[in-house]
Amino acid sequence: MPSIPPDKGDAHSNQRLRPLFAVGAALTALSLLMLWPLPLIFGGGMLGGGDAFVFTWNFWWFHKALAAGHNPFVTDRLFHPTGTTLWFHDFSPFNDLLVLPWVGHVPLTTLYNAVALFTFVATGLAMYALARRVVGHVGGSFLAAVIVTFAPYRMAHAAGHLSLLSTEWLPVFILFTLRTVEEKTWRNPLLAALAWALCLFCSPYYALYPAFFLVAWLPLRAWRARAAWGRTPGGGVPRDAWARLLAIPAAVVLFTAWFTVPALASLHGAQSGIQGHNPAEFSADLLTFIAPSPVSLFYLPPFSDWWHNAGLYSYWPELSCYVGVVLLTLSVVGFVKCPEARAWVVLGAVFFVLSLGPSLRVFGHDTGLPLPYLLVTKLPVARISGVPARFVVMMTICLALAAGHGAAALAQGRWRNCEWLLVGVVCVEYCCAPVDITTLPAPGWYTQLRAEPGDFAVLDVPDLSAAMHWQTYHGKSLLRADTSYTPAYATRFTEDDKALRALWVTWAKCPEWPGVGEHVRQALRGVDCHYVIAHGDFRRDYLERVLGLRKVYEDAEMRVYSTDEP
User: Fold this and answer.
1) Lowest mean pLDDT across 72-81, 243-252, 270-279, 400-409
2) What is the Cα–Cα distance from 423 to 564, expressed in whole angstroms?
3) Residues 404 and 482 reside in one and the same domain
4) Cα separation of 155 and 460, whole Å?
């Protein structure tokens, strides 16, 4: 894969940095436009909703734990009375560190919006830097950055998955891995290892993808140097580069040992029971690559009918894999016209196949045809993930580099400056505006709860993610929460008792045996749970008629029941 010769000297470095400021400004403006109406409510609302509340809790707990000198990866504020570990929770500690100085001074929802916007701009800048190294052409590189920044995968996860929005370190890793092979300096493998480590601290899923990239890219690079269709200057892996390449995973192990060793240790003994997702439910369907996702402007018949008829709509945030006409067309152009682009198309195809999961699915039908992801399920750590569709982010990065080559080839031919027009076309094709915005009600009774003396617990239902956000106001312990990969011991108290389970599981049957109200009150008071907080009309009949709990507060948003004797 050809590269631009590295710049030397301060003057050249300054010349290289100046365009980055312009690119950053352009990406910021485009991000605010693509995330409209976020700029209008930046300080008063929240991008997305649902799982987004988990990340405001992450900000709060990370700050609270560090300020008190506690380990932030263990908490007694959730899953009272046992508490839980958070090693495999979607903590995204890199993002928690970004906002650490401002927690307590700026609203958590505003900090969330700021970090979400940062991920768009940072991903675009990282992708632009990578594309400048690989493609060289300014316009083609910017187009590649726009494709990755606003890819349907990322726009779908803007609905609440901040960790999965944090894709900025994946292009950085690839950039410094390329430089590791091409430049005889030990700085590059260390920077590649640092980027890999930061992938882990954004999302554990993204810690796996650099390994898959190396496994696919190294043999391809070595082979294409000898293949007629891909022979390019600088192909292959120089013999002296192997030591530097091996240093990358070795350095990653050192950089992350403080986290990975206790995290893996938590999988054993009393802290076992952590399970991954079911890959069969979260594998990309061939349909999802050609049909715009439910957040797209173009989610119209027949595409919307396809999503519903194939039974895929329930999983749309994970299955938003739409490639788009521009990306697909330019990748083909790049493959045909630019030998340098062909390896990136092949790599994109590798990640495309991995995203399909253990067997091929077409329009909601499992064909039973086994696919390479079956091998991934045999890997001890990788099998915890269980969401093959997320490999789409790596597919998009690789195809965007091929598309950058294609755009550059067109722009240098008869279609001069076409890449800038194509930037606009991509933005329209990937547009999801207006994006979902959540406006939170006033804290209301939670402020009163915060003022109540004592360190006791509450059960806040049915939205367990929102319950975690409201805990940042009142500070009391929660019986249930929406953490990822929660150990089995932490959930046993509210899982094993059918009467307690009915308090928070929306589809659970409500038992009405004689004395069930007294049983529930004694169980809750036995673990020092003083209140059950129910939002909307959730379980009104069960709480009042069957359990006979005493209502102590009600407004348009919630009802609060005391666990004391009626």
Assistant:
1) 270-279
2) 62
3) no
4) 30
pLDDT per residue as tens digits for the range 331-357? 999 999 999 999 999 999 999 999 999
| Torsion sign over Cα 441, 444, 449, 451 | positive
Residue 57 lies in a domain: no
Are residues 296 and 338 both part of a single domain? yes
**Whole-number percent of the chain with pLDDT over 70:** 92
Question: Could you give the C-alpha distances from 65 to 59, 162, 188, 196, 449, in angstroms and in order?
Answer: 10, 21, 34, 26, 21
Instruction: Decide if 375 is inside a domain.
Output: yes
Q: How far is CA 197 from its chain centroid? A: 16
Taking the C-alpha atoms of residue 145 and residue 168, their distance in angstroms, rounded to an integer, is 11
User: Are 180 and 223 in a shared domain?
Assistant: yes
Whether 401 contacts 341, CB under 8 Å: yes
What is the average pLDDT value for the chain, to the nearest integer?
Answer: 90
Structure confidence at residue 8 (pLDDT): 44
Question: Which residues make beta-bridge pairs with 438?
Answer: 46
At 500, list the tokens.
């307690």
Structural domain boundaries, residue 110: 32-51+90-227+237-265+286-429
Query: Angle at the Cα of 350 (from 228 to 321), degrees rounded to 5?
Result: 130
pLDDT band at 484 (very low <50, low <70, confident <90, very high): confident
